[in-house]
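lol ok so funny story. i was supposed to be doing the assay writeup but got distracted and ended up predicting the structure for this chain instead. priorities right. anyway since i did it might as well share w the group, maybe its usefull for someone
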Amino acid sequence: MSLIAALLSETCYIRRPGPRVRDSTGSYVAGPPVEIRVDNCGVISPYGVTVGSSSETADASETVETRRVFAAPLGTDVRPADRIVRGNEVWEVIGRPTIFPLTSLARVEAAVREVTG
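and the output, tada:
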């Protein structure tokens, strides 16, 4: 098994707000979240290195922000407001995903971050 195949062998879920509905006051609000299953994907370290980016906030809290890349098969619908659920981890998509259609490893990549603490 190649390294890429091993890295992109997970099943994750894309969580996003559901279709808009009206609340009790008649205002439109986001509906219940929907989850979309994505096979053959992964949350991987950027640039193919084994160490990702993380930082700690030094304000007497235990906040740690970790950045990674969500890689999924070509054609996966990833949007800037999505959350990527991987087991009990929830990653927030940062900005617009990038599509790599003309490579031997055609895929969709999105920068993601996880904030804990």
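The first helix runs from residue 3 to 7. The chain has one domain: 3-116.
back to the writeup now i swear
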